[in-house]
Each structure stands twice: as C-alpha cells, then as structure tokens.
Design goal:
By secondary structure, the protein is of the alpha/beta class. The protein has one domain: Uracil-DNA glycosylase-like domain (Uracil-DNA Glycosylase, subunit E). Helix content is 44%, strand content 14%. A 6-stranded mixed sheet has the order 1-3-2-4-6-5. α1 packs antiparallel against α5.
C-alpha cells in the first residue's frame, strides 16, 4: 500500500464517514459534513461536541462566538489556531443546535479515534461535558476539569491510548465571568502538561 500523508489519511477518514452514511438523519438536516480543521502534525487536538449554525455554514469547527473565545484562549498560551487541530465528536449539526444524542456520538466515535490515530497528538483537550464524557463516562466536568488523565480508547478493534484534558466548553463560559476565568486558567496548564510529557515527568490522576 502507498504511504499516505496525514492529510491524505484524514481525507480518507472523511470519505469513509460519507461512504458509510453515518447518522443519515443528521446528515439530511445539515448543510455539510464538518470534519476538522488545523494542523494534522500538531501535538494538540481540541474536541467539541457538534457543529452549530456557523460551523454548518462554513464547514469548519469552532468559528462562531465560542470559536472566537477559543482563539483568544489559544493566544494566551502563545498558540495560533492554525498550529492546533480542532474537531467535534459529531460531524453534522444537530437540528436547532440540540445536544447530540448518545447514539449519534457512539456512531461517530470510531471515526474520531481514526482521526486521533492519524494525528498522534500528545494531548487531547475535550471541550465540555458532552465531549469529555464520551471518553470518561463517569466524568463530572465541575470536578474533573483541568485534570489530565491517560485513557485507552476502544472504539475500534485496535485500542489506542491518549492523554485527555477535560475542560469546560467555551460557549458555557462566554457569559459567566467565573467560568471564563476558570477556563483561561485551565488553558494555561496545556504547555506545562506537554512539557512534562516530553520529559516523561507527567503524573496523571487515576
């Protein structure tokens, strides 16, 4: 088999979602598939729950108000959006921006794992309880935010281990000053976590 670049491998995952007709009812009500955006060679992947109206229109994740706040937080740790990779668990906009249903998240999780296998990030940042609970079903975002954990994904035949950092969703913090500051503070942990991973010094909560 020919060697695929990361971009080519990600495009293959995207085409598989379309070919496999994942969540056809969601797809029928959406403008387009919102797959992911950013640098596939990044050491950081951010994962939200599902596209909203702006994302459905542009085909890019996190481009509305929450996306602008995400960009601001990236700047606080000296990162540009183009230097990270951003995606959602569910790749089609749910009707009326409702929360994604458990069966919809379950249907997309194997493809998300494929994305992570291609990118091989050092850290996966789950934005919000919907995203984080897919990896940690017992998670309580109010308690677990900002605490990195090493977990094994088993959404496909081949298990895959990641370091997961659950954070509040940017949208939830837009109008709540205290939550906004908490999210900014949690973001400040990201460079240190990566540095500790690089030096094999990271001690993770069980």
């Amino acid at each position: 088999m020919p060697f695929l670049s990361k971009n080519e491998a990600l495009e293959q995952v995207k085409q598989n979602i379309l070919k496999d007709k994942v969540c056809p009812d969601l797809a029928a009500g959406a403008t387009q598939l919102v797959f992911g955006d950013g640098d596939p060679n990044s050491s950081i992947v951010f994962i939200g729950e599902a596209p909203g109206k702006a994302e459905d229109s542009t085909g890019l994740p996190f481009v509305g108000a929450a996306g602008k706040f995400l960009n601001e937080m990236l700047e606080t740790i000296d990162l540009k959006r183009s230097a990270v990779y951003i995606t959602n668990i569910v790749k089609y906009r749910p009707p009326n921006n409702r929360d994604p249903m458990p069966e919809e998240k379950k249907a997309f999780l194997p493809y998300l794992q494929q994305q992570l296998e291609v990118i091989q990030p050092k850290i996966v940042v789950a934005l919000g309880r919907h995203a984080a609970s897919c990896f940690l079903p017992q998670l309580k975002i109010s308690q677990d935010h900002g605490h990195a954990k090493r977990i094994t994904l088993a959404f496909r035949d081949q298990p895959f281990t990641i370091v997961l950092l659950p954070l509040f969703h940017p949208a939830a913090a837009l109008y709540n000053g205290s939550m906004r500051q908490t999210l900014i503070d949690d973001f400040s942990l990201i460079p240190d976590i990566i540095s500790q991973l690089d030096n094999s010094e990271l001690v993770l909560n069980k």
